[in-house]
Amino acid sequence: MEILAFGVQSDEKPLIEKAFQGRHEVRCLDVFLTADTAPIAAGYEIISTSVNADLGGPVLQTLAAGGTQMIAQRSTGFNNIDLDVAERLALRVARVSHYSPQSVAEFAWALALAVNRHIPRAARRSRDFDFRLDGLLGRDMHGRTAGVVGTGKIGAAFARIAHGFGMELLGWDVAENPACTALGMRYVEKDRLFAESDLISLHVPLLPSTRHLVGAAALAAMKDDAILLNTSRGALVDSAALVAELRAGRFSGVGLDVYEAEAGLFYTDKSLQGTDDDTLARLVTFPNVIVTSHQAYYTHDAVAQIIDATVRNVDDYLAGRRGENVLVPAAPSGP
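The line above is the sequence of 2-hydroxyacid dehydrogenase; the predicted structure tokens follow.
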């Protein structure tokens, strides 16, 4: 059987082909699944998609009409999938329930240190042989307070690194993680976390209840010199409200690996035509803001785990098994 994989990065392609070698043929496309590209999947029973795929109702209907019966998404998040429509169309949908939490946690800390110590600015100056220290004054992390919003596997990994820096830990989640309390984390209401933390890192999924979790009120409650990090989902942060606070001169640094309107932008090259997204265009102009391209997960270790899980999801589908990663349990048509 030949599997069609959308949104495959050049680094991923050899790993995907090797993982499926001897099992199934796989056709890798660098284009993302959208309403325009969905017809390409006609005749493919199984497709694989990336995190920024459009799997809303119209696209799912196109896929189903073309004969697709199984979608293997190569990501943990699935807020881009209309699961109700998928179930109505009898489409099997599976995701990757977990991969290396260290990949995201370490990248969040890379953003934190980069904005705190002004590393991008220093690197740009050095290329011009400008070695002044003006404007590069940072702060010690030791002794300051890290607020971790969401203390699952990734949040806990982030907290362990913060603990290694000698930081005080505040946490907020629907349930306490014993691994975090063992580090000395104190669980508090999110309003208190926002108000008392010197550094705030977001590690919760995007749900109706968490959309714009960091909105105008939360941003206003934060310290003027706080550092805000988001390596989870873009819509956790109200981007327009964040721009308003940054224009007022607030926050020591902001590190964003995700953006609420990133679909159609991230993982593409817009360097020639630019963007008509005024909010994103404004965000990247602030000297204390770093925006990266949803790459926190992008390590050899994590990508290999994601691909291995995707292969297992396909094998489970063909064997008629319901694996741990299944979101919509439609039955396969047969091997």
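Note on the example: The mean pLDDT is 95. The first strand starts at residue 2 and ends at 5.
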